[in-house]
Each structure stands twice: as structure tokens, then as C-alpha cells.
């Protein structure tokens, strides 16, 4: 229920881009929130930009369209605006999201990312996804797709971890050259949940530079971190369940950082990920 409420608050606050996934197990709530806001007359479907994700157990090409159709059924929407391959590695298909052997090791699955991509292209052609992209892809994996013989559509975006402590300068430049938008996840430095976050890296929002710059503009460190990303052309997808912070994270369009401040924040880069994706 908290997701339903949060999405409705976010739409009221002005958010239009919603980053979802089947594996977040809340697509039914996101879909309901969107439909309720459409029914209220606050938005039209075409105002919303919903991103869905193809999970690792669904990489075999014949599974791609049925998986997206399942997501659409859960959302009760006719199409997603963006459908992305969530991770470049495949797991054994089946009901288990993290299929494991008797020793607790993940069971991987051999698939061809290019074949998965062709199935993604077919979803776009069928009108089930307006655009298609990838996530957690490095340069080599992007090049595999970009250099695929007979490529019909290139990925429009690559969603990766990106924030002042992990600025991704090389990947950002490569993606810029190829017209691929970087969507930065964990733009606030994550929830620091030890089950999936490397908490040995210090909390981003406690950073003295971000806080000092924030003070100057009467903004919080979170707002400065988000502003920094959008100002360098990185899309941000901050997550919050808190109404106050949902609104706060949207108040970033009424100030801008100077070139000097951008450089100062860029210099905070530690090249350390919070989300190590050790599997
Ligand atoms: P909460 O949901 O209680 O607001 P990220 O977007 O980098 O994944 O970070 C998400 C985490 O940051 C969540 O734990 C969220 O907690 C917290 N958060 C979101 N917005 C803010 C904010 N403006 N100030 C401080 N913490 C925030």
C-alpha cells in the first residue's frame, strides 16, 4: 500500500517518470496509482513515462514478449514507455527469481544478449514498448548490441548507478557519443540496506561539500546531488516513501549550480559502487 500512496503523491508533486520492475513486486500498485490519477483527470496516460524491466530469468528470446505482457497485465496498461534489460547476465528460467543450486550458488543460463535484444526490438514493433534500453551494461556489452549485424533499434538508455561518489565519467562520455541517455539509479546514495548495499562507502548525503553548497542555495544535500546529476545530463530516479522527501526531491528546478560547484562535486567521485551486484 505504501507504493500506491507514494506514486500518487509523486504524480501530484509533478513527477512523470516512474521507474519500475516486475521484481519490485509492486507494479500492481504503480498501475493502480496511474489509473486513479488518470480517472481523477489530473494526468493523461501519455503524460506518464513508465519504465519496466526484463528480469534475468527471462532472457531467452521466446520469454521476452510474454514477460512484458505479464507486466502490462499487472499494471493494467497497454504499453510501457520504456522496457529495459535489467542486467546483462541471465539466470535459469523458471519461477525462482534467484535460482540456486544445492550449494546456494546462483544458476546462470547461457543466452545470447543480441538475441534477447532482437526480442526487445519485436516488443517495440508490436507497440508494447515505446522505447527499449538496457541497464547495468558496461561499454563492452553496449558495443555488442550497437555492433550487432542488422540492428534495428539501438538502446535509447542505459540505467546504471550514478551519483557524486560514482560519477561514471567514461561510460557517460561513451553513451553521449552514441546518443544513449544515462539514467542514474541510487542518485541519493541508496537506502544503505546492508543486504544489497556496500555500506563501507560513506553516506553520500552527509558529504560536507554537498551540504555546504546546499546551504548557499537553501537546499538540502539531496537536492544538490540531484541537481548535479540533471545538470550533467544524467536522468535521476530518486526513491522515497516519505511525502515530504518526495516533494523535496522535485524542488530542484529553481536553482542551478555554477561551473565551479559542478567541478567541486565531480571531484567527490570515489569510483566505488554502493550497489555491487555481487551475484
Ligand atoms: P525514504 O524512503 O525514507 O525517504 P536512492 O534514491 O539513492 O536509492 O536513495 C533512497 C534512500 O534515500 C531511501 O532510503 C530514502 O528514504 C532516502 N531519501 C530519499 N529522499 C531523501 C531526501 N531528500 N533526504 C534524505 N534521504 C532521502
From TrEMBL:
Feature type site, description Lowers pKa of active site Tyr: 53
Any GO BP: bile acid biosynthetic process
Bilayer-crossing regions: none
Source taxon at top rank: Eukaryota
CDD domains in alphabetical order: AKR_AKR1D1-3
Entry GO MF terms: Delta4-3-oxosteroid 5beta-reductase activity
UniProt-annotated binding residues for substrate: 109
Listed PANTHER family: ALDO/KETO REDUCTASE
Protein's name in the database: 3-oxo-5-beta-steroid 4-dehydrogenase
